[in-house]
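ARCHIVE CARD
Drawer: 12
Card no.: 0347
Subject: one protein chain, sequence and derived structure
Cross-reference: see card 0346
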Amino acid sequence: MNFNYLKLKKKNSSYVIAEIGVNHGCSIKKAKEMISLAKKGGADAAKFQTYKANTLAKINSKAYWNLSKEKTKSQHQLFSKFDKFDKEEYEILAKYCKRINIDFLSTPFDLDAVDFLNPLVPLFKISSSDITNYPLLKKISKTKKPILLSTGASSINEIREAVKIIKSGTKKIVIMHCILSYPTTDINANLNMILDLKKTFPNYVIGYSDHTTPDKNMLSTTTAYLLGAKVIEKHFTFNKKLKGNDHYHSMDVKDLKVLKSNIYKLYKILGIQKKKIINCEFKSRKFARRCIVAKKHLKKNQKIKEQDLITLRPNTNGVPASSWDKVIGKKLRNDIPPNKELRWKDIYI
């Protein structure tokens, strides 16, 4: 299992989820191919969505997504297209994930799904749309497994109430910043909300579930990691040019590789948090720091003036430049030739 909550609480760690959702189009073969692509791209988990249209939406349920991208005007109608997988299919996919060493995840949208997914997943993901679905939250919390809680379109108080319910079963909670808009425009991404979630919920891991259209540098998800999101979830497709459903705001394997590369590089360059001198700086510290040097010949017992001195690199054993004010006005114990560094033994202190 790749998911480790305690490890995620440490600095600079990450867990990347390729959210396949239903982009497989109800094909086991395609789903397996996408799992393989997710593994190839470096994802820690391949995630699906488990629902039945009849237990998810009313028959007359208005769409809330961008109809120019996904033309289906009814939630029930759209979900009906992609609710063909049952327990057996998810067992096949979970087994395949285990074989190639990538975590299998799936978001349950009803109580029955929780039951048959429980033996298959290392953790549960709760959709933003279900943050106030308390029966589902209670059911999932009773599994005592770690929970990723998406917070799109939610107030802080709604998040607090959901966390209160969940922590009755588990305290391993990841609070996911999310904007519930498909696709999310850059101006609406509001990644700074990650900082507010970190401040408001300091005892929990913070993550990010992204719905922006990916750019070639994967800037949105990379920035989320930089701001402190340890779990990064992004919709995943085998072809970004496909119309409808979630393909239009999904990353592909090339994007996933860029994201993983960015995170790996950031992991290295972010480094330690506490400011201190590190090993590679000691040589530079020695040879790039300045000492106080005589600009001209200085005589014994002469009172030192600013115009007599200059600061030059390196400072091997001389009076450091930081002691400039301590030297000015003092008398010399002996002659100092030009370009010679001053030493404490040369000065009456």
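Annotation on reverse: The chain has a mean pLDDT of 96. DSSP finds 13 helices and ten strands in the chain.
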